[in-house]
Amino acid sequence: MEVVASAPGKVLIAGGYLVLERPNAGLVLSTTARFYAVVRPLIDSLPADSWAWAWTDVKVSSPQLSREATYKLSLKNSTLQLTSARESANPFVEQAIQFSVAAAKATITDKERKDALDKLLLQGLSITILGCNDFYSYRKQIEARGLPLSPEVLLSLPPFSSITFNSEVANGSMTGEKCKPEVAKTGLGSSAAMTTSVVAALLHYLGAVDLSCPGQSSSGSATGRDLDLVHAIAQSAHCIAQGKIGSGFDVSAAVYGSQRYVRFSPEILSSAQATGGTCLPDVVSDIVTRRWDHENTQFSMPPLMTLLLGEPGTGGTSTPSMVGSVKRWQKSDPEKSKDTWSKLGIANSALENQLRILKQLSEDHQEEYESVVRSCSRLAYGKWTEVATNQHQEAIVRSLLAARDASLEIRLHMREMGIAAGVPIEPESQTQLLDATMNMEGVLLAGVPGAGGFDAVFSVTLGDASNAVASAWSSAGVLPLLVREDRRGVSLEDADPRTREVSTAVSSIQIN
Q: Where are the annotated segments for Disordered (predicted)?
C-alpha cells in the first residue's frame, strides 16, 4: 500500500501584514509548485510478537536534500524519538507526523478501523518528501555556469533536482571553514506546503480521511470535513514547529487552494502553544473538537490572466523580522498606523471587487471579454480605452483600469508603511522594476508578494503578455520562475511523482 499526497505553494497578492489580524482579508493564490509526501509501510508483514510492542519505526527521506532520519514512534503517546539522522532533522516534518498519528487515533473509534490503524502503525512508516524545483533558488548555480537567467534554463533542470546549499567561507576565513548551510528558497511557503502534504498523506494512509474525492469545505460534505481535519492538523503542526501562531494563510492555501482568507483566532491553538505540542493525545482531542473560525472563500484570477513570479537576486528577507518591526511601529504610532491600515484595507477590497467583477463579466459576456483582454494584452494601459466599442467592452476596460489603480494604491501604502516602520517592504530597486513592469504592454498588476522585501516580485499579465515581461525581467537580471496559478489545494496523487516524470521522459523519447 502506498499513498501520495501533494500540496501547493502560495502567493499572497493582497493583504500583506493586514492578514495577521482579524477580520482583515488576504487574497492568496495557490500555485503549480507542489510538495509531495509518499507514505508506505516500512515492512511488508507483521512480526509474530508485534502486538506487544510499545514503539514502531519511522523513516523520513528527503532525497533532494540528501537527508534521512529514523525515529521510534510511541504507540501510546504518538511522540517521536530521533534515533539517527544524516544532516539535521526537520521540526515541521516531526510535528506533522506526531499530530497526524495522534489525530488518527483520536478520530477513528470503531473497532475494525482501529485494528487496521494499529496494524499500519506496527508495520512502521516510510515517508519520502519531494518538493518541486520552483520552491528552491537555482540562481547561483545558473550564474556560476554562465547561463542566461531564463525560464528555459529552469525548465532544463531535472525534476526534483538536488539542492545546492548556500555554503560559503565564513568571514573570509583562511581555514576554509564553511558557514552553516542553508537552502535558498523562492518564498512560496515551502514549510506550509511540505507540512500539509505530510499531514494529508498520513491521515489518508491511516484511514482518518478520504481524499480520493476532492471537495470544498463550505459544502458540508464528508470531503469538506476531511479537508477541515487536514487543515486543523496541518495548521497546528506548522504553528508548533515554527514556535509561533502565524496568520496561517499559507497552510490554508495548501489545503483549500486559491482563496480569500481571514485568519483563525489564535486562541484556538492556546492549548497546543501552552504545552509546546506535548501531551499530544489531549492537545489533538482539543484541536479537532474546536470550531475553527477562519474564512476561506473561493477566489481565483479571471480567465486569460497569468501570474508571473521573478527572483531579483538582491538578497534574502526575514519575514518575522519585518513583521516585528511593523508591529513595533503600530504600537509607537497607533494613529498613523491605523490610518495606513485603513487605506490598505480599502485598496485591497477594491482590487478583490474588480477581479470578481471581471470574472463575472468573463462568464456573462465571454466573447467581448476575450476580445478586450487579448487586445489590451498588446497595448500599454493608456490605450486600453481605445479597444472598447460597446457598453460591455467599456465595462470590462473600466474594471481592468480600476484593478490596476487599486494595485498601485496598495503599493503606495505598503511603501509608506515600510518607510515608517524602517523596513524595506518595497525596496527602491523593486520599485524601479515594478514601475517599469507596470508600463509594459498587457500588464495588469505588479508588486511584492506577502510581506515584501527582496525575495520576489510578481506580475499579473493579460493574454500572452507574460512572455515579453519574462524577457524584460531576464534582461534586468531578474530570474522569471516557472510558477503559475493553480487553484487546486491538497490532492491525492496516483503515483510517486518521480515515477510519473520518468514515464513522461520515456514517452517523449519514444515520440521523438
A: 315-338
CA–CA dist 104, 199 (Å, integer): 10
- Side chain identity at 228, as an amino acid letter? D
- Which residue in 295, 284, 221, 303 sits closest to 259, CA to CA? 295
Q: CA of 358: how far to CAs of 105, 370, 485, in Å?
A: 46, 11, 17
CB neighbours (10 Å) of residue 390? 9
Provide the residue count of the chain.
512
The b-or-e profile of 468-498 (16+ CB within 10 A means b, else e) is bbbebbbeebbbbbbbbbbbbbbbbbeebbe
297: enclosing H helix or E strand:
strand 295-298
Contact 26, 1 (CB under 8 A): no
Distance, in Å, from the CA atom of 96 to the CA atom of 75, rounded to the nearest integer, reads 16
CA angle 440, 470, 478 (to 5 degrees): 105
Angle in degrees, CA 50, 52, 53, rounded to 5? 70
Q: Which three cell numbers stand for residue 505?
A: 521522459
Task: Residue 318: name the closest of 424, 241, 412 by CA.
Answer: 424
Ranges assigned E (strand) in 87-192: 125-131
Predicted TM-score (pTM) above 0.70: yes
Q: How far is CA 502 from the centre of its chain?
A: 26
User: Per-residue confidence of the chain (512 residues) as pLDDT tens digits?
Assistant: 899 999 999 999 999 999 999 999 999 999 999 999 999 999 988 776 766 688 999 999 999 988 999 999 999 999 999 999 877 889 999 999 999 999 999 999 999 999 999 999 999 999 999 999 999 999 988 998 999 999 999 999 999 998 866 544 333 333 333 344 467 888 899 999 999 999 999 999 999 999 986 544 333 344 689 999 999 999 999 999 999 999 999 999 999 999 999 999 999 988 777 666 567 888 898 898 889 999 999 999 999 999 999 999 766 667 778 899 999 999 999 999 999 999 999 999 999 999 999 999 999 999 999 999 999 999 999 999 999 999 999 999 999 999 999 999 999 999 999 999 999 999 999 999 999 999 999 999 999 999 888 889 999 999 999 999 999 999 999 999 999 999 999 999 999 999 875 444 333 333 33
Nine-digit cell at 443?
A: 500588464
d(C-alpha 488, C-alpha 9), whole Å: 11
H-type helices in 185-221, by residue range?
A: 190-205
> Could you tell me the CA-to-CA distances from 45 to 50, 120, 121, 123, 350 in Å, in that order?
10, 10, 11, 7, 59
Residue 103 in grid coordinates: 489525530
Q: What is the 3-state secondary structure (H, E, C) of 262-289?
A: ECCCHHHHHHHHHHCCCCHHHHHHHHHH
Asked whether 250 and 189 are in contact (CB, 8 A), the reply is yes
Residues 6+ apart with CB under 8 A from 176: 169
